[in-house]
Amino acid sequence: MSKIAIARPITTLMFVLALVFFGVNALRNLSISLYPNVDVPIITITTFYPGANPEIIEGKITDKIEEAISGIESLKKITSLSADSVSVVAAEFELEKPIEIAANDVRDKVSGVSFGSEVKSPIVEKVNIGGAPIISLFITPKESSANTQETLAFHTYVNGNIKPLLQRIKGVGKVNLVGFLEREIRIYPNLGALNKYNLSFNDIAYAVSTQNIEIDGGRLVDKQREWRLVTKADAQNIQGLEDIIVANNIKLGDIARVEDSTQEARSFSSLGLKGDTYEGILLEIQKITGANEIEIAKAVQELLPILQEQNAEYSIKIVRNTTSYIQDSINAVEFDLILGAFLAVFIVFFFLRNIRITFISSLSIPASILGTFACMQLFGMTLNLATMIALTLAIGIIIDDAIVVIENIYKKLELGLSKLEAAYEGVKEISFALIAISAMLLAVFFPIANLSGVVGRFFTSFSITLVAAILISYGVVITFIPMLSARIANAKKSLFYHKSEKYFKALEILYIRLLEWVLARYILVIVGIFSLFVVSLFLITRLGVEFLPAEDKAEFDIKILAKPGISLEEMQRQSLEIQKFLENIKEVEYSLLNIGFTSEKKVYEAKIYVRLVPYNKRERKQKQIIESLRDSYKAFAKNFNINITIIEIPQISLGEDDSPFQMAMYSLDNESLKQSLQKLLDFMQSSGKFLDIHTDIKDKTPEYRIIINRAIASEYGFSAKEIALVLNNAFSGSGAISYYRENGKEYDIVLLSPQKSQILDLQSLSLRNAKGENVFLSGLIVIEEISGVTSIKHYDRQRSVMIYANLSDGISLGEATKFVEEQKGEWLDKGVNYKIEGYAKYLKETNAAFITASLSAFILIYFILAALYESLLQPFIVMVTLPLSFTGAFLALFLSNEPLSLFSIMGLLLLMGLVGKNATLIIDVANQKRAEKMGLEDSILQAGELRLRPILMTTFAMIFGMLPLALSAGAGSAIKSPMGIAMIGGLSLSMFLSLLIVPAFYKLLAPLDEKIRSFYK
Description:
Elements: H1 2-7, H2 9-29, E1 41-48, H3 54-69, E2 75-83, E3 86-93, H4 99-111, E4 123-128, E5 135-141, H5 148-167, E6 172-178, E7 183-189, H6 191-196, H7 201-211, E8 214-221, E9 226-232, H8 238-242, E10 245-247, E11 250-251, H9 252-255, E12 256-262, E13 268-273, E14 276-279, E15 281-287, H10 293-310, E16 314-321, H11 322-352, H12 355-362, H13 364-378, H14 385-414, H15 419-445, H16 453-477, H17 480-488, H18 495-520, H19 522-542, E17 555-561, H20 568-581, E18 588-595, E19 605-612, H21 622-640, E20 643-648, E21 661-667, H22 670-687, E22 690-695, E23 701-708, H23 710-716, H24 720-732, E24 738-742, E25 745-751, H25 759-763, E26 766-768, E27 774-776, E28 781-788, E29 791-795, E30 798-807, H26 813-822, E31 832-837, H27 839-869, H28 874-879, H29 881-895, H30 902-931, H31 936-966, H32 973-1016
Helix pairs in contact: 2-13, 11-12, 11-14, 11-31, 12-14, 12-17, 13-14, 13-16, 14-15, 14-16, 14-31, 15-16, 15-17, 15-27, 15-30, 16-27, 18-31, 18-32, 19-29, 19-32, 27-30, 29-30, 29-32, 30-31, 30-32, 31-32
Transmembrane segments: 332-352, 359-379, 385-410, 430-449, 461-484, 519-540, 848-869, 876-896, 902-926, 951-975, 981-1005
Organism: Helicobacter apodemus
Pfam families: ACR_tran (PF00873)
């Protein structure tokens, strides 16, 4: 192949230009994201049953749905929530299952379940587990609303004008509104008038539902034309509703007040700026799976001036834009990549001291990188941290391949060969080593390219990018590099070369002396290096282990949990005080308070998103600010009798609660579950390793239970349903009695008691029986005040509870999880099960993937080297350096106080391949010298001397190429830095291993290898 490339320069040039052309085109079209697509297929089934309590919801709806969907293929787990009036069942599938197929399977199963006429049809939706909003807008009137009509106009405008424009943006999946109030027509009966005219709530409900109608009447058809028939008796305005006859020429307006209003507020949003807070509506924009987040955010930002111009009465502000961090992170890695490339080229020039040769080798970088971009587009990948870091690390591999080839060509030129001969002979001589090197790298990454799950997506993106870079780099260095060398390379030595060569010669002499010393004591050296490796294994226990390390992103959440039963008004008062306190923190740029922000609209839950000024514009770190607030908020928690939890926003959102430690505990025995839970909470609290320990169990909701006196009710001719409907109409407001149509839209008409603040208001209601008698409700019922269950959670069809916690300073997630699991005998009762969730679950998957990938790589590397060397023993000489190089990585992480994380582990896998490259160079030359009948030790010394500069050059080129990663700050640094540090530590030690330990092993095993060969040769 090299011979053809040298002989056909134009063909070779076209090959490289094709790589550049397709690469540039791919770079323009590749989507940008923070991480690979890890959108777990989750389908939710939401079912409403107005007025039902959690126990009824659990038995009548949740259990039936769970049973129906439990047999679906690739189902991973089922979780559910049964709360007042609503059941939410979430089915999580294996990551590889297409979400459309999962949704269809769930719909098919749910459609066969019968619930009864009073239960509304289940709503099946696709959910993105990492579906946190990518960008959020806050809209508020510039002047406070003076009356209900102005408030209604504002909310109607946001829902009818702004939301549709945002939904039309390409890639937008959902726009969620917090603090929004839907328009609603309310009827408030006059209780005195009802008694006067002997009417009841049920009479009004019946009259409105039967007289405010629009019904299709079919068609009239003659021979030439047809007419549609419509019975139109619906009210055209509020006056039309008031004119509805209820009974005996009594109009609705005579006995009730009809208001064009809004639904009862069940959510609230407030923006806190320095000096003031503003009430408004929050619009959270979520993307569909696979959509380009950067493009969506850019489209929203372009739309913002248009929205502002449409109505100058309202102020619109972007309050959260996650794509800023994504773009900053990608830009930072791009800078690292370019800087790393320049540093690597500088190292090549420093060692070769020849501008032409350096220029030739440097051209392999853009050609290979751009070719990799083309492959990424072919495989449907994105530009994300995993792929960009892989490309940054690939620079070392690319320049390494180029150095191996160019350095050998350079040696041939020095021996006096012509350019063409030097190019051909140089590549030919090193081709075996190149194949071995590339094959070893591929052996590391091929096994992990097919890993499944969330962790598998990271490993797959990383490995495919590196595999593409390795293959393209190999193609470039055996075609383009020799072709160029045959035309423009020369061995002319500059003045700088002559003046500096003596230092390199001195280094070679020093190395040979050191190598002679090692070979003379090779057994002792081998024992020493293995002892060092064993000691380094103890460092692993001292290293923090994380899935994705936390980073100072200048943002965090404050979660507020009050007692169920608190009113929205009181929750607002308490939460606003907590939000206002943030004005005292100079590092806080703004804050955003949301109450009732989930689909269940729980008014006893609030969340404050806090945005800090950038890290380089403040003195305190984010962790220090959080710790300070944690202490300050203890007084608020005590005074208001609420729980306040401060949570750092993680790299990937985990749902409603982003606490790092998460555990699901579940059992068929509710009492055993409660006992185990209490033991665990006490255990965690006493350990000192956890902060902000909390669960998803809510306090019981205060409840008035209405007991019907059946004997008295029967005496007066009332059924239980009639009594329940009166209560529902008067106090619920959840069931529309009819609909009001305007401009093509329908709005609920609800019936509500004008007095609904105390129990006496309930007792004063009256009913009319068949005899026309009005009977007060107080004579038909008995009222009990109790505490009712707020919600019931299931995990895999068993009663469950989720435990959440932050970690104390200096405690890693791996350490905390291991501590809890090792001591489970102290808190886990018989019949109770648990599962680690959240980042800790992915951390376990990462460790398992690393072990699998490492073992597979070892086996494949052995197969490849054994085949290449035609030896059963020589591969062990190379392979022994692979685990030993981890010593340098662990030591570097320990000294820099950095954790071992997902990206660090991916770096260790790459390290295995890179370390083997240097060992292969030494063994390849030693084998050649021995084939020339040179003695064993002399062959080793010759191999070391000949390969010293290439090994130093490639190692330092890779180290300098990774320096930007190791020294990075700002966006993405928490992920990049540990990886760079681990790689540099491992490469530094592997350089010494290759130059000193590999020769020692070669001396030990080569004689034995000859004896083994004699059996099969």
